[in-house]
Amino acid sequence: MEKNSKATADYTNWQIFALTLLRVLIGWHLLYEGLVKLYTPGWTAKEYLLGSVGPLAPLFKGMAQSKSILYIVDIMNEWGLVLIGLCLFIGLLSKPIKIFAMVLISFYYLAYPPFATLGFNAHVEGSYWIVNKNLIEIAALFVLFLFPSSHITGIDRYLKTLFKNKERVQI
């Protein structure tokens, strides 16, 4: 099968709708989370990092103990969520953005993994075992990465057209 052109030509309208809806919903979720952090006076990831219980807990706790590193973590967390969410929402630079999103959400998952041996923690929603919303969102982003739609229904569509037209003019 040819790369991208053949595969995307085989998407049905419902598949394109479903993939786009999933991308937009995840984008909205991340954008909203980032904006809440950005507009909450005094927000910091310090308590979240200090309470981490996952395999990277020593690293996260160390980040929280350094004011300069914590400042960078806070800025990257706030603006990372906003920019990743916005790009997913509008379908801009979707391939690399999905990778960044999976990495960022993986850090959240690894800070508070829902493993029975770690016990209850205030930052965990519900009582799960291995699977939580972060892992599901990572899996959904992986599906979106494998079955892209932003070049059909997002800003990437216009960028693709723009770059194609530039290549034609140069030839």
What report would you give on this structure?
The chain starts with a helix and ends with a helix. 71% of the residues lie in helices and 0% in strands. By secondary structure, it is mainly alpha-helical. Residues 1-7 have low confidence and may be disordered.
Strand content: under 5%
How would you sum up the global shape? globular
For the record, give the distance between the C-alpha atoms at the N and C termini, rounded to a whole number: 27 Å
**Rg from Cα:** 19 Å
**What is the structural class?**
mainly alpha
Report the strand count.
Answer: 0
Low-confidence stretches: 1-7
Question: Considering DSSP H and I runs of 4 or more, what fraction of the residues is helical?
Answer: over 70%
Q: What is the tally of helical segments?
A: 9
Count of structural domains: 1
Task: Give a nutshell description of this structure.
With about 170 residues, this protein is mostly helical. The protein has nine helices and no strands. It has helices spanning about 5-10, 15-40, 45-50, 55-65, 65-90, 95-110, 135-145, 150-155, 155-170.
List the helices and strands and how they pair.
Elements: H1 5-9, H2 13-39, H3 46-50, H4 57-65, H5 67-90, H6 94-111, H7 133-146, H8 150-153, H9 155-170
Helix pairs in contact: 2-5, 2-7, 5-6, 6-7
Give the tags.
171 residues, mainly alpha, 71% helix, disordered N terminus
